[in-house]
Fold these 4 entries.
Entry 1:
Amino acid sequence: MSLRLADYDYDLPPDLIARRPLPQRDASRMMILDRRTGQIEHGHFQHLSAHLEPTDLLVLNNTRVVPARRLSDDGKVEFLILEKLGPARWKCLVKPGRKMRVGAETHIGKIAGRVETILPEGERVIRFAADFDVLADGVMPLPPYLRRESDLSDFERYQTTYAEVPGAVAAPTAGLHFTPQLLAGLAHTFVTLHVGLGTFRPVKSENIADHRMHSERFVISAAAAKAINAAHRVVAVGTTSLRVLEAARRTHGKLVAQESITDIFIHPPYQMRYADALLTNFHLPRSTLLRLVSAFAGHAFVREAYAAAIRERYRFFSYGDCMLIL
């Protein structure tokens, strides 16, 4: 077990970053990790069902990514719209920050906005001259490592086919591989966690236990709680679904329907309690998500798997390939 930040680093050839999705959603490669045997197998996502039991239940995050990226009317300030705080008041990230100090003004959609305050983590609270839908003409907030502007195709592909509840500023990317036809053949249920800024904040503390996550809101319906409690084995689809399962309140050992917030940070030596298997993409070096996967599968095993993925030229990150950890 390691809590050192440097131990979660790795060198990735830039050409292995998947800058666009494959033409077919379910055509991605899938690495299969067996924690009992320590074996690594290479396969394809289209054959996911062959690695599952008939009694397995997939738990997916049905959050919907909102078009949260906007530019000021003069094109000089970029906004990532995070949350509506009240009439005409929004919490945003801005770039460059030096142009948007307290009192600074700009315009979006010809509506004047003024920086009301700067929060401890650098987010700006913007008060606009009128209440309006800031997201109406926004674009999809692609991760910066893709190094390209989003286009019309991203409105479809940077979204799961089962996305339903608007509120995320990033996609739950393990779910991007599913087609409606493939999902229809598997037992599944949905939870909701609106992926926010906390998942992607860089870890700056050399001791990872010192890192603090932002809070994210989640919902578990009564139907989902009933299905999860009855499942023989629970397969979390994505790190966000796993975080919901591990953070959720229980009564007498059973999951209960709830709406709450969580800032759970899962890293070694955390012991999973409720997720039995995990489907996930390949994550950035030093990220909180890589630590979560290491807690689930073991630090040494994950390092071995990532080295194998690089050798075998898997596609990495949001639009890339995936791994199934059993």
Entry 2:
Amino acid sequence: MIRSLVTLFALTLALPQVAYAECEQSEKVRLSGELKKLAQRNAWSGVERSYLSLLETKCDLSFDENQLGAESARYLGKTMQMYDRLAAAKELDPQPQILENLSGLDSMYGRVRVKGDARRRPVLSRAAMPFAPDERKSIEWAIEVVAGTGSFEGMLPNGEYLVGEIAFTVESGEEWQEVVVGKVKGGGGNVSGGSGPSDSEGAINWAGLIATAGPNFIMTPEPGNPVLDGSGMHQFEPADVFAGGLQIQLGGELGLTYKAPEAGLALTIGYSGGFGNDTFHQMTGWFAGVLRPGELRIAVGPTYNVITGKGTGVAQWFDVGQDKAADPVNSLRYEGWSWGGGAQASVGYGLVDLGDSMKGIVELGGGWATDGSRSFSGFGLRLGIVPSVPRFGG
């Protein structure tokens, strides 16, 4: 009885893990076919993308899939990933060629961690580049990763290297060698057991252009109470307005912290237009604080707005000075402008990397403003570009 209860309890604990690891079989079949077709065309960058997508399906990969993934990593110079994928293939079928490749990597490459600063990225170099294409690609990949992120973790061919002002030697073996670059006690950097980087951060850790555009809606209800002008008369105010149009934003973003969640500041100038029976144009200056956790981008902050509008129909409480039936308020035309402060927020998600420094994004944004007597609000869906946050991805 006790044994049965223990078994039932263990199965209950395992259920969430089984559900989490459920394989997306149909997607795996599609990606596997894509992987093989791309490999036949020697499109190894595409093979790499398909292999990484296969890993996301949570399915067990076959010998051929791991072998093709190892080949794409070899072509790109990602030697550590190549080694891991060959090892996964070996577990399924320890073919002599796989064993020979693993042995060759163990004898000709060493494992290295370069710990640098993404805000002040060092330069990795090797004076005497090897002739073997695979070794050259491995070094070129490491140079690219360090240049893009400040750090590197992987395998490098045996030999002498320089990162920043630190010289180090890579030797074959399974032990990891650690090279720390950055501000440390006493200045400079160190290899293995020395001091680590300083916790101090630079003033600007990333920077770039913001440009977004997409459909937008503007809403402005008529004030509930009469608005009076300086002479005590009813002021001309439009009736309720709801108009659709386009929103465009242009500005820049500065990254101020690199510790997660990465944060920064953004300044943008935006235009929102609403068109139809009523036409509104809103110019907005927006100063926002920005958080960049993972692929998300969250921005919120104050705005200042200038709004112009024209159309037909004024507030129901407006005193037309005669019988409303003869001259109804909804037939009166209005035109004017106002200004005032407000707030705006947006939540976006990065869809695609556009080079090393930009990211394509989709975001949902909304804002509110007031001129003291009337409120204006809007929301829209935008596509555009924002700066990428430098993160270690190699």
Entry 3:
Amino acid sequence: MPRQDTTAAATEPHHTRLLQALAVVAAEKGLAATSVSDVVREAGVSKRTFYEHFSDKDACFLTLYRQASASALRTLRDSVQPERPWQAQLEAALHAYFAHLAGGPQLLRTLFVEIHHLGAAGAAVRREVMRTLADFMRDTVNRDRDAAHALSEAMALAAVGAITELVLDAIERGEQARLTLLTPAASEIVRRLAQA
């Protein structure tokens, strides 16, 4: 019988607690003002434990960003109803996405704004997430369309960029809790780009 590896299972709660602690502290203080000491104090673990999981604060934040983005993408995917026309699917998915984002307004601000302050590493992770969202959009829009009328990769990425700017604008105006009101405009952006 193979030996069971309990190390990963035992350290997983620490990993999760550190991510949650970073989310709390960065939402309160901003990422730049947040220290590893702040994070471990909030998580109730040692610095040694922190460095067993992450090389530095930025690496922890990038993991948090990826996980939060993956959670939002799951919401998008779970809301798709393949039997409906793509326009209706997309509108329902976008509404669910905006509702998901609005559920954590402080974390939303931290993730959407702070990622821009992490230089090349932040830009690379942000681009990875945006491409994943664009791929989801293309899959949804192109499911029942012929190749001549398919949403291109460039137009899907443009749509994701435009929708991200709508979210950033809402954050800057302090309207994170009302993100679902962006659904009609976001849907129209995708529809128009799908016809381009």
Entry 4:
Amino acid sequence: MKLRISGDKLTIACAHMLSKHDKCARVHGHNYQIEVEIEGELNESNMIIDFSVFKKGVGEILKELDHKTLLPENSKDFDIEANEKEVVVTTCDDKRYRFPREDVILLPIEATTAELMSIYFHDLIKEQFPEFIVTVIMSETPTSKVIYTGD
């Protein structure tokens, strides 16, 4: 049986940039809509999991990213220097950005594409709820979605 959660509590507003992309190489933002589906067996209460427990767990993962600039810590194209006060990014095009440290989340991925971020979210959710098959559906815009099931 499957259970899916979505809604305002699973929406995050983030800034990011992609390297070597005509339009998206500039710092820009999205209101990412995240849906999470789990598949599992019914428990002794005849539920896969209590909706509120699942929503709270997923919401806590996403909350720390909301209204932040997301940067790919493992990027081959960005030189990122971070200390407790600031994060300085130099791109492969020699653009230089300086952000206050508290406004940035460094993600352990190569690029902040919806594809790689959906894998990152999937893995965090799977760690928290290992007994379920997890699917993450991430929308960057109303017409652009990525679906990742951990295949």
